[in-house]
Amino acid sequence: MDYKKSSIPTTTVTRDMNRLCEDTGNVYETVKIIAKRSNQISVEMKSELEKKLLEFASYTDNLEEVFENREQIEISRFYEKLPKATLIAAEEYTEGKVHHVNPTREKLKK
Fold this sequence. Notes:
Layout: H1 17-20, H2 27-55, H3 63-67, H4 70-81, H5 85-94, H6 103-109
Helix pairs in contact: 2-4, 2-5
């Protein structure tokens, strides 16, 4: 998913927990699913940010470059303005884009 072009709100959204738990029937399981997806998104976004910052990294200690590296500052500001990983994960879950399987529940069905 391209997080840069998403229409996910950047602020906290109140959600109906009963509606969120319709799939699992358990609030805690739903929160766990969203938290795991949030961690995946966070790792993905962090690695992408690090790759972009490495492009502008300077390996010499020049005092002017330390204070004046505008490209890194702009990239960092852009990523700070993106929605947080938890908001993205919650939105993906409500839209049905997160695939999850509970192994203990699957054993009971068999």
